[in-house]
Amino acid sequence: MTTLPTLRQLRHLSALAEHRHFSRAAQACSVTQSTLSASVAELEALLAVPLVDRTTRRVVLTPMGETVVAQARQILEATESLVRDAAAAREPLSGALRLGVIPTIGPFLLPRILPRMRRAYPKLRLYLTEDLTDRLLDSLHAGRLDAALLALPYDCGAVDTALLWDDPFSLVYRPPVEGEPSPSLGDRLDPSNLLLLRDGHCLKDHALAACKTGTPKPLDAFEATSLHTLVQMVDNGLGSTLLPQIAIDAGILKGTSLMHTPLTKGAPPRQIALVWRRGSGRAAEFRLLAEKIATLARQAPAASKTFKPAR
After folding, report:
1. Contact at 8 Å (CB) between 227 and 105?
2. Rg, Å, the chain Cα set
3. For domain 96-166+272-306, which CATH number applies: 1.10.3720.10, 3.10.520.10, 3.40.50.720, 3.40.190.10?
4. Structural element, H or E, at residue 151
5. How far apart are CA 293 and CA 286, in angstroms?
6. Per-residue pLDDT tens over the stretch 48-58
7. pLDDT tens across 237-291, in order?
């Protein structure tokens, strides 16, 4: 019978590859340096190939070592996923759950729902990652995230989806000062006057689809990477913008002079959704999570406008 590497050996090699230092890798694994070094040596003897170049002052993996590390991480992730799936089957929404969320949702939704989520599921350990949609999806498909809160439409690849609610857009603008003419809605939606987030934010594409306009004007030295920055730019008279209802209801315009007008009924909203890898053994748990998020959101203050079921 073939002798197989142990998870312990694979974990030690993976940590060494991450930290590139025996002492720091040992500390990360809560073992002594001699124990970790012996574990890696045992793995090299078992595989009969060198994995680490010990002739330099720093840790350098051999080409075969890099290959083994990549496979070891896949094995460790699959094993950890097995444990999480089994725990979820015993008691849904308990234990660790790694959730990604985009920055145009997280700050406006999570403060409303997380305190009550913790009370409802005290054993749930929710680890949050905020990032752009494409990077969250990369992490999801690589197994570094379990699920993600995103805005659709977006090409998410092989995922299962639970639609939570529609999030319509409103035009946000600074009112004219006394004596100035009031621009029409069409003027404020003109691409030469419209400010949106920088490329890479899916909200920019959703907003452009909602107002059916062309490419907005270049911002020269100004690039908004958050809705709060965008609001300040509009409040300083640089143009108008489009904001999702979830941000407006959360009070993003508080302290400004800005006004907002909903787009016409024919304007497509973005759709807030929870997505996870297709075929996941935790699908039932994620559907429960989606249902709970939608329920808690509807019970939040000012929820009547925002959290309407997705079409």
Report:
1. no
2. 25
3. 3.40.190.10
4. strand 147-152
5. 10
6. 999 998 766 77
7. 888 899 999 999 999 999 999 999 888 777 889 999 999 999 888 898 999 999 9
- Position 115: which residue type? P
> In whole angstroms, how far apart are CA 119 and each of 89, 125, 274, 302?
21, 12, 21, 21
Q: CATH: 3.40.190.10, 1.10.10.10, 2.60.120.10, 3.40.640.10. Which one for 7-85?
A: 1.10.10.10
pTM to 2 decimals? Answer: 0.70
Please give the Cα distance from 210 to 117 (Å, whole number).
32
Query: Closest by alpha carbon to 229, among 207, 252, 257, 262?
Result: 252
Q: Is 14 helix (H, G, I), strand (E, B) or coil?
A: helix
Indicate if 169-262 has the same CATH topology as 96-166+272-306: yes
Amino acid identity of residue 73, one-letter, is R
Q: Specify the CATH number of the domain 169-262.
A: 3.40.190.10
Rounded CA separation 81/37 (Å): 27
The count of C-alpha atoms lying within 13 angstroms of the C-alpha of 134, restricted to the half-sphere facing its C-beta, is: 5
Cα 173 from chain centroid? 29
The whole-angstrom separation of Cα 65 and Cα 126 is 33
